[in-house]
Design brief:
about 290 residues, mainly alpha, four-stranded parallel beta sheet, about 5% strand
């Protein structure tokens, strides 16, 4: 993380375009603030320099829309920059040891909650199959479908995706749950080392299947894997969101439809990944 921060600090010109593009600023006390000053404050924050506090306020307001990424004219990912700022803030609050202990307790409770909620909705054997690292799974697959952790609270979505894969004759394995964590919750809590270790372990789990790509469901997980440098050897596996995967196969999907669905729907445009809204529209319209 420190190497990435040094690179960002060297590349940032404090133009403030990322701050100007942020849709959250109007809902904070930073409305009307000088973009260059706020951006400089964030860079100072992630470099452990003395700060005014505007950078911290902006980092805490971030909703990860990703609009700042497109606005930045330099080789900097402002969304990751703000994530690092939040990590630094957590560390300053409790210290490294305190954040590690707190993130560990949170993850333990989080894992127990997932098991409890998922256990009311599926058989134990199916839960073990979804969340196991290797047990009972084939050794190679074209696609690793990675659904993250939270989706275990609504497993019918996982089952629906797998049904679609079966209909499309996709060669896949499914990975998810706490044993395949991306580490984002640890990073948010300020435990960079713990989050990085989890992320690296999960990447090795995916690579063991020698897949062509990893298809994800959780946008936060995909951002964690693709936008923040992994510890150790980086992976060459491409990551693709499920909406893009389905949009690229919309003709094959149409051939499987059995009746028209005449509905008007309200679409919550959740940004964060490039093209996701367009891909959702394409699938819905089909």
């Amino acid at each position: 993380m420190n190497e990435d921060i040094a690179r960002m600090a060297a590349a940032c010109t404090y133009c403030g375009e990322c701050f100007k593009a942020c849709p959250m600023v109007p809902y904070t006390d930073l409305a009307g603030a000088d973009p260059e000053r706020v951006t400089r404050d964030v860079i100072d924050l992630i470099q452990d320099k003395e700060v005014r506090g505007e950078g911290a306020a902006w980092a805490e307001a971030c909703m990860m829309s990703g609009l700042c990424v497109d606005a930045c004219p330099e080789p900097v990912n402002p969304r990751t920059m703000l994530a690092y700022a939040r990590t630094k803030l957590r560390i300053k609050e409790d210290g490294v040891a305190g954040r590690k202990a707190e993130s560990g307790e949170f993850f333990k409770l989080f894992s127990q909650t997932l098991k409890l909620v998922a256990g009311t909705q599926m058989e134990p054997e199916r839960f073990r199959h979804l969340t196991a690292v290797r047990r009972g799974k084939k050794s190679q697959a074209d696609i690793v479908f990675y659904f993250g952790c939270n989706l275990l609270q609504t497993p019918h979505i996982v089952f629906t995706v797998l049904d679609v894969f079966e209909k499309l004759n996709v060669d896949y394995v499914v990975e998810g749950g706490a044993a395949n964590c991306c580490g984002v919750n640890h990073l948010r809590a300020g435990d960079e080392e713990g989050g990085g270790r989890m992320k690296t372990n999960s990447l090795s789990h995916f690579a063991a299947f020698d897949p062509d790509k990893v298809v994800t469901f959780c946008p936060s997980c995909q951002m964690q894997y693709t936008e923040r440098p992994p510890l150790g050897k980086p992976t060459d596996m491409p990551f693709e969101h499920i909406t893009r995967f389905l949009a690229d196969r919309v003709d094959a999907l149409k051939a499987l439809y059995v009746r028209p669905v005449e509905k008007r729907v309200g679409l919550h445009e959740h940004t964060g990944l490039p093209g996701v809204n367009e891909d959702v529209r394409k699938v819905l319209r089909s």
